[in-house]
Design goal:
With 366 residues, this protein is an alpha+beta fold. The protein contains 14 helices and twelve strands. A hairpin with a 2-residue loop joins strand 10 and strand 11. Helix 10 runs antiparallel to helix 11 and helix 13 crosses helix 14. The radius of gyration is 29 Å and the shape is elongated.
């Protein structure tokens, strides 16, 4: 089945369709009535080809996506989402009014009809479309069109409303846009997702500096090493203080590394054993094997991501990997053929406005 239309009323910035209610030829539909009062839903048609919603800040993009998610799953309904200028927003005792959200489904298959009928005995034996409206988490109304033009209505309450469709409705997948792909994936993460303290390239570089200082003192005079340890604090503290191993940073690194592994294993469809071998070859300095595996991974990334199909601004844009020291480093290649690490690309992005914006250039010169 596919989403054909989204309905919303009393939800955040979506109150109800005032224009339709004021139109002299408009007639109420069964799902738009609340008692004797008529509150037409705001309707947003969804073309089957739509993959992205674009709009200005505060134009309602997030509200629309939230409405779709809540209408499908029945989860995450909140009283705070109730439109603050709707007729039902008040603090009166006993007022338990929720936002109303709905979906029009089309292209329903016979298998999906069977699953819906297993949950709703009164549903028609055959249908290709239906509407569902959630009036909060515990009330669900479904409407099926009939040959007479009159809609057949079914109502689910409580647990039945919350559980409806879990086996048949499309699942909502939310992209964690605040989780970034790391600049590099250490070999320990290639071999397996390691537990314990995680360190990014910066922290691992600082750790090596500490090790170099200790190794230098130890190799000079091993007998005095233990005595000199207390005096090392002035040398080591500036380096150690730069190392961030806080729980928050550890959590961010774990999410970032997990995302990178998913990119390689699931999206690029790299065989897990080859990834383990790559980590082992990098650590062992087997450069020939490393080069061959890295090139094969890049071919998989290019084929599976297929940027030329979706990124018209730069048909030559590529996300690639390269082996560097004990890391698999993620890089970007653009139309100029230049390859950048993520850090270099970020610095380049910050510089570009100064290079190409005449006003910024004038200010910079002054």
């Amino acid at each position: 089945m596919k989403i054909n239309k989204v309905y919303a009323r009393f939800y955040k910035s979506f109150n109800y369709d005032h224009h339709r209610k004021a139109h002299r030829d408009a007639e109420p539909r069964p799902w738009e009535m609340i008692g004797e009062s008529w509150y037409p839903y705001i309707e947003v048609p969804i073309d089957a080809r739509i993959t992205t919603i674009v709009g200005a800040n505060e134009s309602g993009k997030s509200h629309l996506l939230g409405a779709i998610s809540k209408a499908i799953s029945g989860e995450d309904f909140k009283h705070q989402d109730l439109c603050r200028y709707c007729d039902f927003f008040n603090v009166e005792r006993g007022n338990d009014f929720w936002p109303h959200l709905g979906i029009a489904w089309s292209d329903v298959t016979e298998d999906e009809v069977g699953k819906i009928r297993s949950e709703i005995a009164g549903a028609p034996e055959s249908f290709q479309s239906f509407l569902m409206f959630r009036q909060g988490p515990d009330k669900l109304e479904l409407y099926f069109s009939t040959s007479t033009g009159i809609f057949h209505r079914e109502e689910l309450l409580g647990a039945a409303a919350r559980d409806f469709g879990k086996s048949v409705l499309p699942r909502v997948f939310t992209i964690q846009s605040n989780v970034a792909l790391p600049g590099a994936l250490p070999t320990s993460e290639l071999i397996s997702g390691q537990s314990g303290v995680l360190r990014d390239r910066q922290n691992r570089r600082l750790s090596l500096q500490v090790a170099d200082i200790l190794r230098g003192i130890y190799s000079t005079d091993q007998t005095r090493f233990a005595k000199d340890l207390p005096g090392l604090a002035p040398k080591l503290s500036p380096i150690i203080s730069e190392m961030d191993e806080s729980p928050a940073t550890q959590g961010e690194l774990r999410k970032s590394y997990t995302l990178a592994r998913k990119l390689l294993l699931h999206l690029a469809n790299v065989e897990p054993e080859r990834l383990v071998e790559l980590g082992q070859f990098i650590d062992a300095g087997e450069n020939g094997h490393v080069t061959a595996l890295v090139e094969s991974i890049n071919q998989q990334l290019e084929k599976r991501l297929n940027f030329p199909k979706y990124w018209v601004q730069d048909r030559d844009f590529q996300l690639r990997v390269t082996a560097l020291e004990s890391d698999l480093v993620f890089t970007i290649r653009d139309r100029t053929g230049t390859q950048y690490t993520f850090d270099e690309a970020q610095r380049r992005t910050q510089i570009l406005p100064l290079v190409f914006h005449p006003v910024a250039n004038a200010r910079a010169r002054s």
